[in-house]
Design brief:
By secondary structure, this protein is of the alpha+beta class. It is built from eight helices and six strands. The chain has a six-stranded antiparallel beta sheet with strand order 3-2-1-6-5-4. β5 and β6 form a beta hairpin.
Length: about 230
């Protein structure tokens, strides 16, 4: 959702939880059993923690928690959502509200942490794209996920999407491809140091490289290609 322009993103962060809340409450009133709003709203909060911004997450955590508390702690409201069933005992309902509040706090913290991680990843990607030397970022399978302008020009990559091609097809020497792949995999496994330069070539011309292994999930290798002159 971070790639959606800000005005539309804010609109979606408001509309999606609002529509979900209205749908859950409408369903809860119509269905003939005891209230199901608390567990369904819990599922909604956990789902939204993956999708919406922390500020909106905090707002909807408060709204959902307040809604749950009103349903469970007010016998008249509880009867509306429980097909007319009224219960004089609310001690267990208080514990359910506390449990919901704990889930809401967790969802807010998780949303904040996830947003920070995404921001750091975007900053790293932006830095790589701005570097004055050719740089590619690839995973353990050799799939290139990011290549800056210099690298796309050097490797003659026209695709500007997320996946740019195969590392070994573009960079591994044709006569030493097996050795190159083995060294590449050993770097990910920790059996070879990133200071051990890979023997790479582009269209038959050898190039020196500097390597850096990112401790991301999944792990990725940053290859900086040194172009002379």
């Amino acid at each position: 959702m971070r790639k959606i322009p800000q005005p539309y993103r804010s609109l979606l962060c408001f509309l999606i939880p609002a529509v979900y809340l209205a749908t859950v409450m409408s369903f809860d009133i119509e269905e003939p059993f005891r209230t199901v709003s608390p567990p369904l709203l819990t599922i909604g909060l956990l789902l939204f923690s993956l999708l919406i911004q922390p500020g909106w997450m905090l707002l909807w955590a408060i709204v959902y928690s307040g809604t749950t508390a009103v349903i469970l702690l007010n016998p008249r409201i509880y009867a509306i959502f429980s097909n007319g069933l009224a219960t004089p005992e609310i001690t267990s309902h208080k514990f359910r509200v506390l449990s919901f509040l704990a889930t809401a706090v967790f969802a807010c913290i998780f949303s904040w942490v996830l947003d920070r991680l995404r921001s750091k990843q975007e900053m790293l990607d932006h830095l790589i794209l701005r570097m004055p030397m050719p740089v590619v970022v690839s995973d353990i399978e050799g799939v290139i996920h990011l290549a800056n302008g210099k690298a796309r020009q050097l490797l003659e990559i026209s695709d500007t999407g997320h996946e740019k091609g195969r590392y070994f097809d573009l960079l591994a020497p044709k006569l030493k491809q097996g050795k190159c792949i083995a060294t590449y995999l050993n770097i990910f496994k920790g059996e070879a140091s990133v200071h051990e330069s890979l023997e790479l070539e582009i269209r038959g011309k050898p190039f020196k490289t500097q390597l850096e292994l990112l401790n991301s999930t999944p792990r990725k290798l940053v290859t900086m290609i040194q172009v002379e002159g």
